[in-house]
Write the structure tokens for this entry.
Amino acid sequence: MFRVPVIKRILYVDLPQILPYFKSGAINAMGLCWKSGIAAELIGIPDGTIGERLYIVKVNLYTAELFAWTVIIVALSALSIRLIALLSDAAARGLENL
């Protein structure tokens, strides 16, 4: 209707509307990546992974170590989620400055 070029419409209208949903999806995906990655390591038990260590301490009933590995996994997940949130916020500020 107003004959706005496609590039400007995408940059100034479409991307700002999509970015909050992208941020939410990326944060959820990052949480699922950690859960599924550790679960896959528990099933496959490759040497030198968090999943292998978690499996060993679970089988041997080392409760303190099991709790420690769980805390490490949760901390790594929270850290990566925070990083994704910061990156998407920086992208949003970059779009605002265009």
